[in-house]
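User: Could you walk me through two proteins back to back? I'd like the raw sequence and the structure tokens for each, with a short line separating them so I can tell where one ends and the next begins.

Assistant: Of course. Protein one, sequence then structure:
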Amino acid sequence: MEGEKGNKAFAQSLGADYPILSDPSGETAKAYGIYNGERKFAGRTTFYIDKEGKILHIDKAVKTGTHGSDIAAKLKELGAPEKK
């Protein structure tokens, strides 16, 4: 979705310096093997992908209430440089 309600605008509103993906067709979820065809959706899943495109970790146990701090802890654990 583009415009003021699109993913880029949403990421900017959060101050995020990374892309946010929405997948209404399920195409990306299918490619990553997390699409539930029976229920026709993908559960919340976070993929940690390095700059070369290698998947470093997959978190399928996303807890919305703590996910921000969970992401920060996992990035630190994976050795990602801290933003200054």
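----
Protein two, same layout:
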Amino acid sequence: MEVINAIGRRKAAVARIYLSEGKGQITINKRPLDNYFPAATLQYIVKQPLELLGVAGSYDIKVNLDGGGIKGQAEALRLAIARALVKINADDKSALRTNGFMTRDPRVVERKKPGRPKARKRFQFSKR
């Protein structure tokens, strides 16, 4: 099997992954998964597509992660892993889609408008 690459995005985070056959090691920016994401919830988010299909120990994943915060990065990585698994076996797409792993979450921070302190917040109104 050759190396399969995929990309995932969430908010400002971008995850580029290279998936190949191996023993289940996930390396993010040259660091192991449990070192990069110390929180168990974020590790769980990253591994969700692999656990769903039961292939957690059969692929090595090298990741370049950039931008955003840790939660956005974890969800971008989850999307990239799901897309790479579909490239390997297209029959898995329906299972991944029903669990919501194939959908790119389009929500991003709304821009700040001029004359306001934040995107929608207004300065305090004074009648006199």
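The CA atoms of residues 113 and 120 lie 8 Å apart.

Let me know if you want the two compared in more detail.
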